[in-house]
Amino acid sequence: MGKDQEVMIGICGGVGPAAGLLLHQNILEHTDSDGEDQGHLNVCHFSRSEDMTDRTEYLLSKTTDADSNDRMENPACGMARTFEMMRAASLHGKTRLVTGVPCNTFHAKPIWEEFLRLTKAAHSDDVRYVHMLEETREL
User: Fold this and answer.
1) At what angle do helices 75-92 and 109-123 cross, to 10 degrees?
2) Residues 12 and 83 sit within 8 Å (Cβ to Cβ)
3) What distance in Å separates the CA atoms of residue 8 and residue 138, rounded to the nearest whole number?
4) Are 5 and 96 in contact (CB under 8 A)?
5) What is the reported pLDDT for 1?
6) This protein's superkingdom (predicted)?
7) Cα 48 to Cα 79: distance, rounded to the nearest angstrom
């Protein structure tokens, strides 16, 4: 995908559903659109809480009982399914995808790295993944 290609911002929500909504609202409010709908950025926001296991419960079970982790799906799996829906939308619109997850806990290493492993293999060249904590540190 070309660098001059139109970009779509992908919000992988549902892990703290209000956080995704707040991010989407902030994007709208901070976009200089010259008062026109067409001046806004392209945003695709998927919020699929039902498909996400609890991040904190997953992380705590990982540290206290290794066997329980075999029974509990990593939240990255549900988010990867959500990401694939978003990716299909960006391909349909012929846009590059810049995506992130507005949830601090989701960025814990065991979850974030699994999410990247599940999604990057097929899309590493044409998707920019935004790591919320690293981006904040850069400020």
Assistant:
1) 30
2) yes
3) 22
4) yes
5) 46
6) Eukaryota
7) 8
What pTM, to 2 d.p., does this model score? Answer: 0.86
Contact yes or no for 90/7 (Cβ under 8 A)? no
- C-alpha distance across the termini of the chain, in Å: 28
Instruction: Please tell me the total count of domains within the chain.
Output: 1
Mean pLDDT of the chain: 89
Is 35 a domain residue?
Answer: no
Is there a domain that residue 19 lies in?
no
Q: How many residues does the chain have?
A: 139
Task: Check if the beta carbon of residue 8 is closer than 8 Å to that of residue 96.
Answer: yes
Q: What is the dihedral of CA 120, 121, 127, 129, to 10 degrees?
A: 10
Per-residue model confidence as pLDDT tens digits over 10-36: 999 999 899 999 999 999 999 988 888
CA distance 55 to 52: 8
Buried b / exposed e along 106-123 (16+ C-beta atoms within 10 A): bbbebbbebbeebbeeeb
Q: What is the pLDDT of residues 88-122, one digit of tens each?
A: 998 888 889 999 999 999 999 999 999 999 998 87
